[in-house]
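Sequence in, structure out.
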Amino acid sequence: MRNEWLLVEHGNVIDALDPRVQPDTSVLVRGERIVAIGGDDLADQVPRAEPVTRVDATGKTVMPGLIDAHCHMTYGESRSEEEIDLYTSPELRTLKAAFNAQKVLRAGVTGISQPGGSYFIGVGLREAIREEIVLGPRMTAAGRYITTSNGLTDYFPDSVGVPEGSIGVLANTMSEMVNEVRRQVKNGVDLIKLADSPYGDYQAFTNDELKTITALAHQLGKRVTIHARGSAEVGAAVDAGIDWIMHGNRMTDEVIERLAESKTPLVPTLLLLANIADWGGLVGAPVPLRDGMARALEKSAETLHRAHEAGVVFVSGTDSGFSVTPYGEWHARELELLMDYAGLSAFEAIQSATRNAAVTLNLEGQVGTLAPGMIADIIVVDGDPLRDIRVLQDKQNIETVIKGGAVVVFNEEALARRWPHERGQTYSTSDLTFDFVQGRDDAQALAAAQRESAWSKSDQRDLVATVKRRETGAVMPD
């Protein structure tokens, strides 16, 4: 056990407990835990014979490290579901996940939960980080998403089946679901991830199935989360005692009230939609998709504002791991989106990514706030996120990252590299027809529209097509 002393001096402390900033305040750490928070006399608590590492935070913000409750380390910044599920060997997927973990930590994210991924790579990565073999945030991990034939991750036609490398595993009967829970727990997962309907227009698991899965996971000491966009599955998840819920884009007042009363955290995960809606044109997202994402966000805003007013507990998560949500780039943008689309204050947004998110690390009451006895996951920020939450989005503003009481030193040259999964084979981005070549009819206009949208609907194999199938709210029911 480490017993070194660390003193973060003269910062403006946001402890994630009280919205009031503590100016010119120091944080004293011994080992991995915070010992005291106060003034200049903190150094007197360090025995004279013992060295202390000092971090000058004068004029800077000192706050808990961020927690991303929805970060997929095995996705490899893929542009298509095929790249996630089929391409790149499990050995290389594992190495790439380990390589990318340092990027997440460099962004000030000191903790992540991976709600599903390839094989049991997340379990191995968690252990490698814990043993300090790999540099990355502290981590919890699910195995493959458990889904039905009507759920999110049974992507491929029946003639293909569910590949071994898929992030989803198919379970259509209660016995299959129970067996998969037992198998995943045996292999060391922290939580079970369920995948309900892609867009929330129906409930893919029965109420009894959700209750049985959750009861078994809890009996075995594990937690459960679920992809649930619609009101029916959110309500069923609350009734089943699922530990936290992903998305919740469309909810009735009655379901919101039950969600609020249960104190079950909600992880809206708005980043994937917003990045495509706002900047998808820069990377080839079709205009209809970008417009659909924008509409989905507006629809979600109405629900999420009602949820906030009702007292629902919000947790920040990003769906990082796609090519439009690469590792270490956009984690803190979710806080801004929660302010814009759910009505959170800046302090509430910070709490969503610190204190509230600790449950997803199985460390509630131990991490996510700055107080004596808490794990010392701390970031020093150049700027005041209470005045401008966007300062957290620029890694250059994250001056110091402290994880478990130790200042992290990064290889900045390695952080600048990208190492994506093997790319899909693309022959063209539109159809080379005779009329197009000859300039007949509306072929030229069609070509111009396709260049604007970058990819044809029939043949695209990039990420945005996958997102349209999986995540877009454009087809969410009213």
